[in-house]
Each structure stands twice: as C-alpha cells, then as structure tokens.
Specification:
- 2 copies of one chain form a homodimer.
- Chain A has 431 residues and is of the alpha/beta class.
- Helix content of chain A is 39%, strand content 20%.
- In chain A, the strands form 4 sheets. Chain A has a 7-stranded mixed β-sheet with strand order 9-8-11-10-12-13-14, sandwiched between helices.
Chain lengths: 431, 431
C-alpha cells in the first residue's frame, strides 16, 4: 500500500474552504495557499482569496491527490460519495464515534472503500510535512523541518509540540494528527515513515489501537527507532480516553509486552516524549560511555547516579588525560569522571577541559551553575563547538543569569535540559 | 541544644572581610552590610566600606553570636583558638577532609568544643534566613521569603535553587549550605527548623550522613513534612560524593528504610526536589480528590493516568453540577472528570467552569494549550483567583503564546508546572 500521494500530494482541495477568519476551514485554506496546487471548494462562494472557488470537488474535473474535509459531519458522506476524483481524504470534521455516532463513521468508510480512497481522521487536526512545505492543518503556524515523524492521537499535544518545538528550535519531518483512525492507522504510518528518507525516528502519542497485531508487525519490521507514550494506562485514564477519541485503551500490560517485543522505546510522560523527540532531532550517535563536566559537585554526583541508573557507563579518564586536567582545574576539583571544575571554574576552565577531552569516544553531559566568575554565554560557545563533533547534552541551571546562554544553546542546536537527570535519561534511551 | 543565636544572631563578624571584589569574602561582607550588627575582621585593613576593621575577632571585645570565617584553611585553627568571644562559627573556607586533610578538620572541631562553640561547615556557602534579612553567604543575591527550610550538602544546588526560585517566585524560610558538617548536622537542623515558626516544611539535598541514628530520631520526632533527595545512590554516585564533600554515601537501601520509618517524602531528581519545594511554598491543604480541567483531551487523559498512579482520586462530579457544566462546555466536550473543554474553549469557558466547580472540596489541575480562540493570560486570571481559595496546580503548555501568562501565574503565586504528569505528581506527594 502506497501512501505517497497522501503524504506528498501533487494537488490539494479544501472542501468547506472559507474566508471567514472565525472558521477553522479558513486557517486550513490559508495554510495551504502557498502549496503547489490547491483548490478551494464551497458551494456558497464564487471566489476565495482571489482564487476561483468550486461548488463541489468533482466539479474541479481533475484527479486530486488529497481532499481535506472541514464541514459539519452530516454532510461528509455526500462529499465522499460524489468525490470520485479524489485519491485520499483528511477528515478534520468531528462528530463521529467520539460523539457516539459510530454509524456515520462506518458509512463514510464504506463509501471511501468503494471509491478506493484512503482516509486520515475523522476528528483530527490534519498533517504537516515541513520538507515539502505542506501544512494541511488549522494550526496557527508551520513546523520547522526536523527528522522525527510524530504521530499523535491527541490534537492538543500536536499543538503543544509545535509551540514547545518553536521555543526550543526543534522541528519534525512529519506531524500527523490521526483522530479516530478509521482507515489509515498507526501501523500504516510506521510502514510509510520507515521508508521516508527525511525521517530517522518515529514518535507516537498513543491512546488505543484497534488492530494490535498489525501494529506489532509494523513496529517489528520497522528499521528506525520508535518512541511511544502510551496514555490511558490506568482505569481512570482508560475512561477518559474513551470519551476523548472513542478509543479502547485496552490492557496496559499487553501494550507493554508488545513494546518490548518490537523493541519500542517507551517513555512515561508527555515531558519525556518531548525530550526524546528533541534528542532524536539534535543528537547523533549517542555513546554508552559518558563524560560529565560540571562546576557543581553535587549535580555531578546526581548525574553520575543517573548514568548508572540508565544503564550507561562513566568513561574512565586515562592517567595522561587526568594529569592534563589537573593543571586546568581549580583547587579541590576532580579530574576523575564526573569532572568537577568547582565553583571557581571560569569560561576558560570549561574551554580547556573540553579541549583536552573533546576527542574522547563518549557522550558528553555539560552542566553549568551560574557563579560570579563564569560567563555562561561564553561557556555555551565551547559546548556548541563540542556538539558539532560529539553527542552532547547540556544542562544549564535556569535563571536570570543563564537565560540568554540557554537560548544560545537552543538556537545552535544543542540538546538542552533542565536537570542533569533528564539530560542523562535521554542519553540512556538513545544509546 | 539551642541554635537560635546561630540562625538568628544579634551580631556577626566576618573574619577575612575584604574590599577586593574578586574575593568571596568581599561578597560575604557586602551581603551582611545591612544586617543588624556586623564587624569586619582583617589584620591587613584599618577600614572596610567606611567601617572600622578589627585585626582579630577577639579585639572586638564583645560577645559575637556568629563568626564567619573565609580565610585559607591553615589559618582557621588559630582564629578559632583565640576567638573565645564568638558563640558560633560558619566556616566557608575549603581544604579540609574533602581535600584529604581530615586532621585539620579534627583540630578545629576540638578547639571549638573547648570554647563551647558550634560550627557550620567547613567547605560551605553559608546560610540565608530571609525573614530576618540575614544573607551570610557569598551568593550574588538574597532569597525571597518563603516557608520551606532548605538544607543542602551541595553548594551548587543552593545557587541553582536561588536562581530558579527567583525565576519562579519561590522563596525559602532558610537556606543552609552544610558543607563537611563536622559539628552542626542535618539532625540538629531538623530539630531547630521543626520549632521555627516561619518554617512549615523541610527539604534536604543529602549525600551522606555520619550519624544515621541521630538523623532518624530527629526525622521521626519532626512534626513538619520532610522532603529528601538522596544522591550518591549508585556505585558511581558514591565515588563522586566522596570526592565532593568527603561524605560516605552509604547503602541506599538503608537510607530508603530510614526514610520510610520516619515518613520522609523521598524525591528522585533535582527537578522533583525543586517541584516539591515550590509546592510546599505555594499550595496549602492539598486534597486527595482531584478535579482536572483541560482544553486538550489527550493531556487530560495523561493527567487522569497520573492521578491514579500517584495514589490520588478523580473527584466524582454530581449530576447537578454535570448538567450545569454541559451548558458551559463546547460540543464534544466532557462534563465528567477529567473535564474536557475541547480546543474550542474560550476564556469564558474556563471562567464559567471554574465558577461552577470552585467550591468543590478538591485539588484542581488546570491545563491549557494555546489555541486560536483563547486568551491564555485572561484564562490565567480565573486560575489565580481559584488558587486563593483552593489547592491549584497549573499546567500551561509552553511557547510564545503562553510565556506572559505563565509569568503571570508565577508572579501571582500559582504553582505552575511544565507537564500534567509533573503537576499531578506534586499533588500526590503533598496529599
């Protein structure tokens, strides 16, 4: 099954296109205005944004790779039935099984099958494929380019992902809000993005699956790493999931078994899912051996704990390197790993130490606490340089004195985390 | 044993006071300039900052409640030996057991015992007691007032705490950097802060203890909640801790047993320690029953999972309240808990729903994802109002559109967290 004319469409029609800014169909159409070929469809308009508006999708009289439907749910069957010239649908409209109307959902699926059409949705936010400048969603802005494909059963988390991504300079290769998932499902997308040359990892926000076996097979066959956050794990969570997308969350134990079988990386919170997406985007070739460099011994100790707890190894520093380090490190520092530069460390201490160790075959955790003697922004520069050659996670303690340097790290593509434990946890999952 | 003239001194002397801004003794003296009674001591100066400088502490010829020593370690014994008019010492100077010189440490302890003096340190950053405007540290600024006493074996984490606290509007009733802890130890401080009227909880960053039994007894007798982050849990962490403060981290299992026996709340990361300090500062009377209000169903489901996982209960919404809610909530929302206002929720949806539920006997988790139809800043105002009457945690998804509203929440004293899981975890520990 080939989904390429769905995820890389030559032409797009927006059914229900509007020039009323209060409607989401306005946002969808506006987001698509600059795309290759786009047709507005709405029987109530002759023209939208200076373009000819078609009364129906069939009246375009051309093959359309992707039809995006944003009209009231009751009207959807008629559109699909008649729109035989459309290859794939994204149905944004809500009001199907999640609202108790399972029949309407079955009806549109049957009609689309008859027309040999594939469907994403209904009840979804659409898709974004930044590499081809496709924003087929009603989100206020387009994502940056990245290399992780994110598939989400929560539209809200898609929005959260966009905004946090902007703030931290993290993009995606694809964002897919799957909604009720009546046809194209997560397994299909795993298969598609496994072959997508712009995607190097797949992240999934998962509530529940209809076909567990299909998912398991797709995940097992996938050559790229898959990260999953499963929600609806508890009884209360399951009840909430049913109301949310109509999905049966199922037994968490069974999911966990499947994740293990398919070598899926399971994360435990929305925060950790974002951390991993960030890590897959910014860190290449993470190593199991880790070097910790810090100007706070306590945080270095906390990081050393996290190294062991996450199945990583503190790299042994050779005697020769240790001798070099001792010359560079202030009194009472530690030239053994975790390397403690002490609160007396200056920017040049960081520079020298990074220079001495920069060729080691290891992942680096660089921790910095603001002090009176250090310039966090200058210290960030040597960390940025190191990150061009080596897998690096940075942990600059937050606050007024580090704000600009944390922004510098983010803008320069360094994976930056709030605490040493979070930084190390990410390395543990990658390595 | 009464430590009140140590933590609430009538007079302070800074031994090694300096007017050279490159020295930490400069910062210490500067921070104390506005304190009740302060004496600079330094044989090399006649005057510092326009004040008479004494050659020795004994030449002040008055009883001094607190002498702060910031001179090279070799000189410390002589100062203690002669400074018989001092009641307590804080020894900032490093270069004792953490640098391998156990003998020097024993020497100063013996001298102080002879003089009936108590010691905090050596190798520490000092103490801050915001309620009496005492900043006896070399930190660049003074903490805000709060109600949690923070005792730390890591000086670096004290600094991190200060800066993050400033950013998030969280203060402390006391900050104590304990250093090598040769005399006054954590047990003594638990006992002291248990009786301190400005303190309602005690937080501890713990590497290792010399007297476990004393700690356990003090913690068991303490009537206020105690939160501990234990570091040096793993083999690697233990090795790092020895170099850091010379402390033997000991068996983590034994510590965990002690924490359980004494009803201590154990947290697992620096981040969670800060979250709990924030929670104890900002949230009063957390309830076990929780109401979740969200405009994203997925995040609501994740929060519902977290409620169950953290031993909390989703409060049942009565039929009457549910009927009221249905009128206020957009199509396809959920009037059962977690209450899903959907992506179509406006500021007034939040206001109305908070108004309907605001008298319920529960903790509240308010989640907000920025959308085109909501004003996050206005929505923050109803959350701030609710937090004046009820225990509230807020989780505004980060990004450009929510930055100012998150700042508003922080400035207004609402406990604000990055993810629903973190927000709920905190409630679980409090309740």
């Amino acid at each position: 099954m080939n989904l390429s004319n769905l995820f890389n469409p030559r032409s797009v029609a927006v059914i229900g296109a509007s020039d009323d800014p209060r409607k989401i169909s306005y946002s969808i159409f506006k987001n698509l205005l600059s795309y290759k070929t786009v047709y507005p469809v709405n029987p109530n308009h002759k023209e939208i944004s200076g373009m000819k508006c078609y009364p129906t999708v069939e009246s375009i009289r051309k093959k359309i790779d992707l039809g995006i439907i944003a009209v009231p749910s009751k009207v959807v069957p008629e559109i699909i039935k008649k729109g035989k010239n459309v290859r794939n649908w994204i149905i944004i409209s809500a009001g199907f099984s999640e609202a108790g109307d399972k029949k309407l959902e079955e009806e549109i699926l049957a009609l689309a099958k008859k027309n040999k059409q594939r469907i994403i949705g209904p009840n979804c936010m659409g898709i974004q494929i930044p590499n081809i400048d496709l924003n087929a969603t009603f989100m206020p802005r387009s994502l940056q380019k990245g290399n992780v494909a994110f598939i989400s059963q929560s539209g809200g988390f898609c929005a959260a992902m966009l905004f946090q991504g902007e703030q931290e300079n993290v993009g995606l290769s694809a964002l897919v809000s799957v909604g009720n998932m009546i046809d194209v499902d997560i397994a299909d997308m795993i298969e598609y993005f496994d072959k997508d040359k712009n995607t190097s990892a797949i992240a999934i926000y998962l509530e529940g699956l209809k076909d567990g076996r299909k998912f398991l097979d797709a995940a097992k066959n996938c050559k790229k790493p898959i990260v999953v956050l499963k929600i609806g794990k508890t009884e209360e969570g399951k009840k909430a999931a049913v109301t949310h997308t109509g999905s049966m969350a199922g037994s968490y134990e069974i999911y966990q078994g499947a994740f293990r079988q398919a070598n899926i990386i399971e994360v435990k919170s929305t925060e950790e899912l974002f951390d991993l997406i960030k890590a897959f985007t910014l860190i290449k070739n993470a190593k199991k051996e880790v070097i910790i460099i810090t100007n706070g011994g306590g945080l270095g100790t906390a990081a050393a704990d996290a190294v062991e707890e996450n199945g990583l190894i503190l790299k042994e520093i050779t005697k020769e390197k240790s001798k070099e380090l001792i010359k560079a490190i202030p009194f009472l520092g530690n030239s053994k790993n975790p390397i403690d530069l002490t609160g007396n460390a200056t920017t040049s201490t960081y520079e020298t130490v990074i220079d001495i160790l920069g060729k080691e075959n290891a992942s680096f955790v660089i921790i910095l606490i603001p002090t009176a003697v250090i310039n966090p922004e200058k210290a960030a520069i040597s960390t940025v340089d190191l990150s061009r050659k080596k897998p690096v996670v940075a942990c600059w303690m937050s606050g007024e004195f580090t704000e600009s340097s944390i922004n510098l790290l983010r803008k320069s593509g360094v994976a930056s985390f709030e605490s040493p434990e979070r930084a190390v946890r990410v390395l543990g999952k990658l390595a």
